[in-house]
Amino acid sequence: MECPTCALDLDHCHGTLVLHVNSLAECTEPDCADTDLVRHSLTVRCEEVDGGCVCTADYVVEYAQAS
Q1: In angstroms, rounded to a whole number, what is the distance separating the alpha carbons of residues 21 and 63?
Q2: pTM summary value
């Protein structure tokens, strides 16, 4: 099976883009150098990642302290 986006020679990534609460993004594909949203068909929020994400806990603490 061939990726249709690969067949069209379009710039894209096969990894999953993880969107963090601090507006940073990272890709699960080790060779991905461009974390632009349009390059990734799969995206998840960091709190949806199995095991959670440290940044969500940090964000909650910072928000509570600011209130």
Answers
A1: 12
A2: 0.74
Q: Which amino acid is at 43?
A: T
Q: Which residue bears the tokens 């990894």?
A: 15
Contact 18, 55 (CB under 8 A): no
Report helix, strand or coil for 57.
helix
Task: Report which of 24, 23, 25 is spatially closest to residue 42, judged by C-alpha positions.
Answer: 25
Closest by Cα among 25, 24, 22, 3 to 14: 3
List the chain domain ranges: 4-66
| Distance of alpha carbon 36 from alpha carbon 60, whole angstroms | 26
Q: Which one is predicted more confidently, 35 or 66?
A: 35
